[in-house]
Here is the input.
Amino acid sequence: EIVLTQSPATLSLSPGERATLSCRASQSVSSYLAWYQQKPGQAPRLLIYDASNRATGIPARFSGSGSGTDFTLTISSLEPEDFAVYYCQQRGNWPPAFGGGTKVEIK
Amino acid sequence: QVQLVESGGGVVQPGRSLRLSCAASGFTLSNYAVHWVRQAPGKGLEWVAVLWYDGSNTYYADSVRGRFTVSRDISKNTLYLQMNNLRAGDTAVYYCARDREGLVDFLFDQWGQGTLVTVSS
Here is the structure.
């Protein structure tokens, strides 16, 4: 069973700054890695799939990269609405699994 | 407009049963696999189960296999999660989430708002 480790657990940044979130898999998931955003009291929202493809309607400031075991979600310039928890999810191996999340909070 | 609406959550005693519903609108369940994903209070996300778009297969997480059953009623465009022998560890918000059309990709592109299940004596 693959374990996804996200770091850091919390990222304190100001609006306009660049956010870099990491997700590391315990074994290769190829490029089958997705990123979701979740705001308090809301359902998750798909941002990125297959490591680097933005989902429909997702702004260009969100980008993903990586393959194998190391992945990165980058938010180029944080908007006020981007402060949330971000989860990575792998679907390259059974069973599908999520990471523990990174909270991006306002500094 | 694509929408998933869960219902049926509540407080239930350990060992009892509960059935959740997920009503879909704006698309037809027969074209999409739909999953259940849960989130314990203050915790991360856990995939629970999936029903294939053609209804041919179901898969479950080890933590719920043998206790939970996914089914659907195409005429009502509604998915169900029958949960038996509930445990305290099943306490969570349960989301239904849609996969991509015609695929079972374990990629969740539309989510419902969730329904809270609390297992407590």
